[in-house]
Fold this protein.
Amino acid sequence: MTKHISPVVPMSSPDISEEDREAVNSVIHTTYLSMGPWIDRFENAIRAVTMRKHAIAVNSGTAGLHLAIRAVGIQRGDIVITTPFSFVASTNAILFENALPVFVDVDPVTGNLDVEQLKMAVNDLLAGGERARKWLPRKLPRYFDDAGSEIFPRLKALLPVDVFGQPADMDTVMSVAREYNLPVIEDSCEALGAMYKNIPAGKQGDIGIFAFYPNKQITTGEGGMIVTDNDDYAACMQALRNQGRAPGDNWLQHTLLGYNYRLDEMSAALGASQVKRLESLLAARQNVADLYTRHLANIPGIEPLTVVPSTTRMSWFVYVVRVSQGVDRMKVADRLAAKGVPVRPYFLPIHLQPYMVERFGYRPGDYPITEDLGDRGLALPFSGVMRADQVEMVCEALRESL
Ligand SMILES: *Cc1c(COP(=O)(O)O)cnc(C)c1O
């Protein structure tokens, strides 16, 4: 049994400055607690960081993903190819619209979509028949249109994820997508500020999404941001986040079935203040990651994450190590917990989450690379405000636990 002792170092901490607090406080003294000036400021700042035409603030990354799925027109029975090695929201947004997520396994080095398999999957799914069948879940739901006729799932979009703050191989993703005219939604919720061949994460796809939960690179408490250069998508998502009010609608007119996915002004003020410090926040995280990498180099049984050459800037979201083959990860995690060092298995594969197994009949072995990374990944305590002595303490505890 794990002994529950209070952690000597937190799993993650936000980095909040006096100026951030003042920005939030200033909002409370006005009458604009929602739909005020801070939303524009925050959106403009993210537009600049990502070099995008439109930025649309929402109240979570998940809400952003959902609006992106709606904007590109994903409907019941449509297939979206995505990765099983991610936080569940990237797949859930597809399921919200009763569409069919189809998984492609990941690259063992980065944990991002394996683009060779992606190319095969796209070709096979578009060819249909037996070739398509092998990419589909063994338990395939049946889909019917409003008139009751059966719909046969068709490939409509790609949804890569920039896992741990390292961008997916977007050149290949985009070339496959352009060849077959498939929209790309880039889940960059873990990668604000990352660069792929000097292009910002979230810039290359038709739509990019960021998230601002307290463990992310910048935080608004809860919050998210969608970026795009496409005017039609932007107008659609602006309407949908605001209860379906189209341009020209008044408060009680709703052209579309929408949601309340708006970000409030206190959160937007915190975001606008945080994003001004993005460079220093990322640099602080890079320093902590470098410290870890240096200390862990001398510890056998642990493999740090590889940053590949196409990642011209890593935006460290979490610091995940892999225990070597044959090391009992849960035993290591228990020993660390007993020393007050919290660690998390990272990620539990999406296809093996109970609701996915129930709906689609997935089994262990279906996506072996994802499962291997999931079995061996341990997220260590990590944030930009971690001190050098805390990093050393975690590494020492890790050495002893192995
Ligand atoms: C954090 C995250 C999200 C969005 O999370 P919210 O909690 O809804 O803001 C989406 N996808 C990935 C990969 C994430 O890490």
Q: What stands out?
A: The longest helix spans residues 278-296.
